[in-house]
Amino acid sequence: MDMEYRNLGRTGVKVSPLCLGCMMFGNRTGPEDSYAIIDRALEAGINFLDTANVYSRGESEKTTGEALKRNGQRDKVILATKVHGSMGEGPNDRGNSRRHIIEQCEASLRRLQTDWIDLYQIHRPQSDIPIDETLRALDDLVRAGKVRYLGTSTFAAWQCVESLWASQRFNLNRFVCEQPPYNLLDRRIERELLPMARTYGYGIIPWSPLAGGLLTGKYKRNEDAPENSRFSRRQDSPRVTPAMFDGVEGLQPLADDKSCTMAQLALAWCLRQPGVTAPIIGPRTMSQLEDNLGALQVTVNDQDCETIDRLNGPGQAASPFYQADFGPHQFPVE
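Now predict its structure.
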């Protein structure tokens, strides 16, 4: 299929409109299946892969690195990973300190079997560490050639702008993109984060554009969650709400009219939102990847968006990732 590549924020780097999230690899998806999924994604034109050191305590990075070594495609891929989460039991084995960032960058390079990381992201903000300490460590990694670009994940709009002030004041490399939770059921980033991104040239690469699977249509009102699904282990999740089911049930006729799956409709909607660069898909199986790729062939027009807005309006959350008193600076790393 033809792929329309997009600039990553204000950089000159071209990335595919879908980013392959690698969180499942080396954990729920075994190595051989993971290699096959990565190979198929690259064959389809995806050139953007995202993982994190904390995913299965390094196993996702190891599996991703081995896949790229086997297929010889490392040079053609924009490879992203993250740092912040706990990688040990000690008090300095987590967070956004200079010590932890530099230590974990070296560890990620080894696991990924590469000499450089294209996009190195701070997985969560940390209010008790000055942002200039974090940025100085990241800037040193860029100047050393170990990292090409810098990004964040689940930062508030004000935290992104604060980082830009620090970068300008101290002449440090700036963050070029932010990775927030965003989907049809949680649209709160439309209030401040997306306008900020468009103003300051941030790329936006949303995680969980399918709301952790809630937008696949496999969860039914008054029925048990499918066995081995994510929410079969979270039966009391505050994200499983009557408003969530209202939204999903309201979307099904629209998907039927387009002869596409619910997941494809949700991804296609996310792809066309102003300011969004590349939603991150996180397939566990090859069939899920193939379904996700089909979203690139689905057209969502203005009338469709009006229908969707009536189900869950701009800036609203029918299935919130975090509650009002549990802001992004406190949000746990999965």
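DSSP finds ten helices and ten strands in the chain.
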